[in-house]
């Protein structure tokens, strides 16, 4: 009994305590990092709510952007954003889904798929302002004017990689037995994919589209010199069109306090929209996993 | 094709012929669909080559006028039409470095917290919160940076830095000058906050790939938590972590709106990181629509080309690293 207590502890104790201390310091640092990181992010969100809510009124949704010093809202910008996002998603989604389908269903292990996957992952985080320059070169210069169509096209290019990625991932999760069973019934490949694989992966693919909408609805850089901006109500696709992010950019940098207030309100609206979309996407994805 | 159109000939033809025509239509649709998907996959490659091609053509005028000097000239003068990319390149690199210096350790810390320390009940909510924050548009960070963060720095951190390091030889240049609020440092800090969620979520995902057996074995021989992380988790995930960091770096290099608001848009290289500067993306965002003259526009597109090449290389390295981790796991 008396053998157990003192013997080798005395020798190793300082070292053991040092290890304990180091562990404690490092773990405290990681806790501090988490607190620090979340603190900034909380600060941003709370400022947004604090400054944005004050400007919320019916006018925001019923009137167009005002000249400095007068009453107005963000109607043209909200509608412009909605139109361009809708066209962008409508154009980008089919291309993304088809490309993802090829990668998961036809060429799962071939060279083309590997290359496309690699390039797609790079496009996924490529600077969006460069996409704006590309569309400016290809569309704006050729057509001779800034237009909502050019803006929508820039957004479509940003939609594609997001949808490709989720479509491929989700189709890869579909069990092969489902496809084999369908093929055994004599169904052609295209029907197997459209009727069986798509149906099994539907929730995941919709999640991808929602995430793509969330991503492009806040994009500013690619719209700056494609759709430009428009002070007035416009639904002409061939003319410059206002969008919420670009209006925020312009109004926030202006010296007028009423414009700055509208910028904060717009920022709050965008953030709410993006967060709602991402949460909806997450709920959908979680629901389909069960 | 609707059923009705298929049925009409079926009645007239012999069963064999009906079957053959039906099979033919199946085969046709099958082929059309397959080629459509293939064409879309190729279109993704087409986007990339189109972007590169358009940028090269657009920047040709500037590149052929200034040659290699474009990369090494600091002056950016629309009046005399002399343009050089050195100041924006410098600003892009320095702001991204500041961002990564802060975001990497903090992001790793949060990832360690989430995987090793956090009570399981909180793990998912905090993880989801961080992923949601990664989706907040960059313009939000920009407007916050301009109205809240920059004045805050101007009043607190910047005067403190100036007075603390004012008498230290080299650091007095780095932190020289009046506290403007906006400038290189502010842009770097905003970028840090912005890429933090990316670095965190990639590192957390990577940490979670470590087999539990390895960690349990280390705990079994009496390792402390830190020792498990330092000796087991980090070595095991090293490649993936580098990939995650590069991914964050790629984001930081190309980030436009968050930086444009707070960088000050000054085309010069200053020894002090408190001074205003510019980055490639901020220059393009600020000046493109106001650029008069082909050479000016072309120079801005050349900046875009340089940015695209830099981010392409960084992101390609990131992907290769992450792919290596996947293979290592698969093996």
From TrEMBL, chain B:
Any one annotated GO CC term: plasma membrane
UniProt KW keywords: Cell inner membrane, Cell membrane, Membrane, Phosphate transport, Transmembrane, Transmembrane helix, Transport
SUPFAM superfamilies: MetI-like
Main location: membrane
GO BP term, example: phosphate ion transport
ABC transmembrane type-1 domain mapped to chain residues: 89-318
Single GO MF annotation: phosphate transmembrane transporter activity
Segments traversing the membrane: 39-63, 83-114, 126-150, 182-200, 300-322
Keyword Membrane (UniProt): yes
Topology in the lipid bilayer: Multi-pass membrane protein
Top-rank taxon: Bacteria
Subcellular location(s) per record: Cell inner membrane; Cell membrane
NCBIfam families, per database record: phosphate_pstC
Function: Part of the binding-protein-dependent transport system for phosphate; probably responsible for the translocation of the substrate across the membrane.
Recorded family membership: Belongs to the binding-protein-dependent transport system permease family. CysTW subfamily.
Protein name listed in UniProt: Phosphate transport system permease protein
Organism per entry: Hansschlegelia beijingensis
């Amino acid at each position: 009994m008396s053998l157990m207590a003192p013997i080798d502890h005395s020798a190793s104790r300082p070292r053991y305590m040092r290890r304990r201390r180091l562990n404690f310091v490092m773990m405290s640092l990681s806790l501090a990092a988490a607190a620090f990181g979340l603190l900034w992010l909380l600060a941003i969100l709370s400022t947004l709510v604090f400054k944005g809510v004050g400007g919320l009124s019916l006018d925001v949704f019923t009137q167009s952007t005002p000249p400095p010093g007068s009453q107005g809202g963000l109607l043209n910008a909200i509608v412009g954003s909605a139109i361009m996002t809708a066209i962008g998603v409508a154009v980008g989604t089919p291309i993304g889904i088809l490309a993802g389908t090829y990668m998961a269903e036809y060429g799962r292990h071939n060279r083309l798929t590997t290359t496309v996957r690699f390039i797609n992952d790079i496009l996924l985080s490529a600077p969006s302002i460069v996409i704006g320059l590309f569309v400016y070169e290809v569309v704006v210069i050729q057509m001779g004017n800034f237009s909502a169509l050019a803006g929508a096209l820039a957004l479509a290019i940003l939609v594609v990689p997001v949808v490709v990625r989720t479509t491929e991932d989700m189709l890869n999760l579909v069990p092969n037995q489902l496809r084999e069973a369908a093929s055994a019934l004599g169904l052609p490949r295209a029907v197997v994919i459209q009727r069986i694989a798509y149906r099994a992966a539907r929730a995941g693919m919709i999640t991808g589209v929602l995430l793509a909408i969330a991503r492009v609805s806040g994009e500013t850089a690619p719209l700056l010199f494609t759709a430009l901006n428009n002070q007035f109500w416009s639904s002409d696709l061939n003319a410059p069109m206002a969008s919420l992010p670009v209006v925020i950019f312009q109004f926030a940098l202006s010296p007028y306090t009423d414009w700055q207030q509208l910028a904060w309100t717009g920022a709050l609206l965008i953030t709410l929209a993006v967060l709602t979309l991402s949460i909806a996407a997450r709920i959908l994805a979680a629901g389909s996993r069960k | 094709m609707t059923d009705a159109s298929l049925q009409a000939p079926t009645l007239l033809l012999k069963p064999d012929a009906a079957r053959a025509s039906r099979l033919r239509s199946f085969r046709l649709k099958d082929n059309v669909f397959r080629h459509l998907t293939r064409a879309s996959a190729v279109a993704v490659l087409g986007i990339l080559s189109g972007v590169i091609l358009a940028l090269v053509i657009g920047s040709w005028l500037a590149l052929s006028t200034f040659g290699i000097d474009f990369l090494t000239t600091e002056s950016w003068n629309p009046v005399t039409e002399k343009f050089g990319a050195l100041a924006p390149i410098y600003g892009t690199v320095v702001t991204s470095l500041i961002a990564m210096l802060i975001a990497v350790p903090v992001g790793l810390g949060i990832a360690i917290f989430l995987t090793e320390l956090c009570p399981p009940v909180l793990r998912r909510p905090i993880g989801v919160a961080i992923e949601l924050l990664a989706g907040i548009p960059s313009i939000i960070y920009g407007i916050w940076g301009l109205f809240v963060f920059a004045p805050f720095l101007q009043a607190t951190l910047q005067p403190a830095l100036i007075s603390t390091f004012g008498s230290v030889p080299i650091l007095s240049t780095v932190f020289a000058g009046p506290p403007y609020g906006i400038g290189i440092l502010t842009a770097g800090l905003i970028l840090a906050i912005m890429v933090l969620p990316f670095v965190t979520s990639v590192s957390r995902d990577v940490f979670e790939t470590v087999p539990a057996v390895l960690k349990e074995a280390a705990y079994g021989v009496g390792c402390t938590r830190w020792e498990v992380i330092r000796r087991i988790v980090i070595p095991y995930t090293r490649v993936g972590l580098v990939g995650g960091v590069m991914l964050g770096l790629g984001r930081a290099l190309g980030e436009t709106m968050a930086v444009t608001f707070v960088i000050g848009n000054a085309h010069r290289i200053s020894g002090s990181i408190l001074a205003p500067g510019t980055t490639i993306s901020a220059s393009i965002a600020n000046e493109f629509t106001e650029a008069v003259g082909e050479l000016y526009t072309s120079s801005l597109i050349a900046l875009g080309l340089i940015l695209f090449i830099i981010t392409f290389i960084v992101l390609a390295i990131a992907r290769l690293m992450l792919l290596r981790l996947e293979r290592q796991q698969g093996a």
